[in-house]
């Protein structure tokens, strides 16, 4: 059996299973090094047990706790606080969102108007060009002129 | 498992008996402050943490089920709370200072009932050495060691409190106790400093 050093603390604490405890105790009867280690661990446990306790709380611990409990109980719950915050926080956020959506809508509309105007200007230029050639006579001619801007660039 | 009178009190509180909760606080309030002090070594903060533990116990009483002993349930809440406190890292400055200077971290910890000044000084030195030992342990070893050596929980109870296995607790407690044997050797009967093999 190898040195059961890792079991020595549990042995002292009475936390080994009976069979394992029997094996470790049998080892200890024949191993001076493990007995010395066990004794050092036992001395440490005794020293820790003899150390002074932490300072006792000041008198009135219970009163202070119940005062805090009463204060905490008087505060609204987390859900309640979130509910109260909802209108204070969410309303401005919702307002800002609506304003942003309106601004985006206006911008999109403005861009659509500009694009439409640009197309009409192109059409106007095309009409002027075709009119100068004296060849826009029929409805089909007007349709072709209206779609001249769709022709690929560089076409002969 | 033997009947657990504390569990009965907790169940009574669940049923609306405020006096039952008060009885639990009377029984465990001081112990809980002492337990928290092992983690934060500051009397005011230890009391605040202990109050947090009882506030949580009060708020979540409806969730309590008497499957484990009440004491284990309480120390589970407290261990989690103190380990979270350590994770926040507010005590690094204390640790660094004490590792350098070994000065007492809390003058209130000096034993007031020592028979002689020499005993008082020895007790104070031991308290400081134990605090330095605890500060030097990894958080989970520290919790297992405190629950075992100061609160008297069994390995199985510690495993429940720390939500781990009894085998892991055996290892945690052993390593921390070996560290204690090294750190506290000067305070032992023979004052030996040799390492545990």
Structure description:
Chain A is mainly α and 156 residues long. Chain A has two domains: 47 residues, no CATH class; 74 residues. Helix content of chain A is 74%, strand content 0%. By secondary structure, chain B is mostly helical. Chain B has a domain of 90 residues: RNA polymerase sigma factor, region 2, helix turn helix motif (Rna Polymerase Sigma Factor, Chain: A). Chain B is built from nine helices and no strands. At the A-B interface, helix 1, helix 3 and helix 4 of A face helix 2, helix 3, helix 6 and helix 9 of B.
The number of distinct structural domains of chain A comes to 2
Say which CATH homologous superfamily of one domain in chain B is assigned. Answer: RNA polymerase sigma factor, region 2, helix turn helix motif
Average the pLDDT over all residues of chain B and give the rounded result.
86
The CATH class name of one domain in chain B reads: Mainly Alpha
Short description:
The complex is a heterodimer of chains A (156) and B (197). Chain A has 156 residues and is mostly helical. Chain A has helices at residues 8-12, 18-30, 32-50, 61-74, 78-133, 139-146.
């Amino acid at each position: 059996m190898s040195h059961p050093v890792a079991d020595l603390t549990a042995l002292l604490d009475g936390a080994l299973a009976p069979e394992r405890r029997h094996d470790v105790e049998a080892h200890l009867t024949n191993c001076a090094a493990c007995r010395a280690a066990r004794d050092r661990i036992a001395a440490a446990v005794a020293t820790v047990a003899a150390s002074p306790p932490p300072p006792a709380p000041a008198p009135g611990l219970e009163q202070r706790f119940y005062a805090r409990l009463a204060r905490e109980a008087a505060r609204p719950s987390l859900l309640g606080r979130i509910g109260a915050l909802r209108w204070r926080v969410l309303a401005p956020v919702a307002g800002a969102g609506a304003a942003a959506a309106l601004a985006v809508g206006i911008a999109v509309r403005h861009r659509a108007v500009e694009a439409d105007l640009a197309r009409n200007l192109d059409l106007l230029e095309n009409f002027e060009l075709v009119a100068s050639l004296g060849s826009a006579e029929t409805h089909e001619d007007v349709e072709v002129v209206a779609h001249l801007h769709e022709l690929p660039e560089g076409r002969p | 498992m033997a009947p657990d009178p504390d569990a009965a009190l907790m169940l009574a509180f669940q049923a609306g008996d405020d006096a039952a909760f008060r009885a639990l606080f009377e029984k465990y309030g001081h112990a809980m402050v002492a337990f928290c002090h092992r983690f934060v070594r500051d009397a005011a903060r230890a009391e605040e943490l202990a109050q947090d533990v009882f506030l949580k116990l009060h708020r979540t009483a409806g969730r309590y089920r008497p499957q484990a002993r009440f004491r284990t349930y309480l120390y589970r809440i407290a261990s989690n709370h103190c380990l979270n406190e350590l994770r926040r890292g507010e005590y690094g400055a204390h640790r660094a200072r004490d590792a350098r200077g070994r000065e007492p971290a809390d003058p209130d910890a000096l034993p007031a009932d020592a028979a002689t000044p020499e005993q008082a000084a020895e007790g104070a030195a031991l308290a400081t050495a134990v605090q330095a030992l605890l500060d030097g342990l990894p958080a989970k070893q520290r919790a297992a060691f405190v629950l075992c050596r100061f609160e008297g929980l069994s390995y199985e109870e510690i495993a429940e409190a720390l939500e781990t296995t009894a085998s892991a607790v055996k290892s945690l407690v052993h390593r921390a106790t070996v560290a204690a044997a090294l750190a506290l050797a000067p305070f032992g009967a023979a004052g030996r400093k040799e390492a545990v093999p």
